[in-house]
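Work Package 3 (structural annotation) set out to generate three-dimensional models for the target panel prioritized at the project kickoff. During this period the team completed the workflow that converts sequence records into discrete structure tokens, so that structures can be stored uniformly alongside our sequence database. As a representative example, we reproduce one entry of 325 residues exactly as it appears in the project archive.
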Amino acid sequence: MQPFEYASPKTLKEALALLGSGWNDAAVLAGGTDLISLMKEEVMTPKRVVNIKEIAELRGITKTAAGVRIGALATVDEVLSSPLIRASFPALTEAARGVASPQIRNMGTFGGDLCQRPRCWYFRAGFGLIAQYQGKDLVAEGDNRFHAIFHSGPAKFVSASSFGPALVALGAKIKIASASGTREVDAAKFFVAPSSSDVREVDLKPNEILTEVIIPVTGAKNATYEVRQKEALDWPLATASVALTMKGTTVASARVVLGHVAPTPWLSEAAARAIEGKTVTAETAEAAGKAAVADARPLSMNAYKVQIAAVAVKRALMAAAGVKA
């Protein structure tokens, strides 16, 4: 680990003043469950680490006129145990439950989950987001078991966020602050598939901090379903989060979002069209799952993910509608 300055501001204004114009100028420390590893591996080498854990205004889960507000420093465990979240957003509760390590749930933060760097082993080995070396595409030509099956550009890592797919399905807004003001981004636009290793995988600038997430309470039935290799500390092979607006027993509108299959949470309009206007049954949910993966482009070693993602969509739809398997 390279030497760095350390600052522990007490207010958001103080923290923002400590950030720089480049990614190597400063790094934001929240739970630290990802940043510390990246610094040890020298994938990230910030000159300054800005600890935001003492900033009270970034904490809490509360109900507001706009919906439920989740502060960036709310822990995964707080999301999991929140009655507000459990009542309106079981998709988030299930996503939090999927973070299998009690230690990570206790320390890891909601904002940190959204901003964590890809788990791609080529990126973690220092080959960048696009993972190229001497003109070779390391992902396409190498071990790509856990990489993307949806990719329209050179990036083939998968978004590591546990909460991202559910937030996209629920139509959440992400609030971001800098020294010059604040801005709000749709969750669907916060995650980015970079075209080069110089671009981050989230819509965040070096001088900005994610402060909170607002989720509208619409009454949509929602659920998350994950498929993973083991129940211990691990990342899913594929997930699906869905939000259904019902008209009686019929789906009036749907948002179906796949996770861990693309550089961003993957919003499937095809799956939504397949289930809209229908009653959710095992058969209609299975058809929507097949529609969700119809355009998948698996790599040499991850075709197995196509069926897994289709099953995740089917199970999430059935869970949201209360249909038993």
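The chain has a mean pLDDT of 96.
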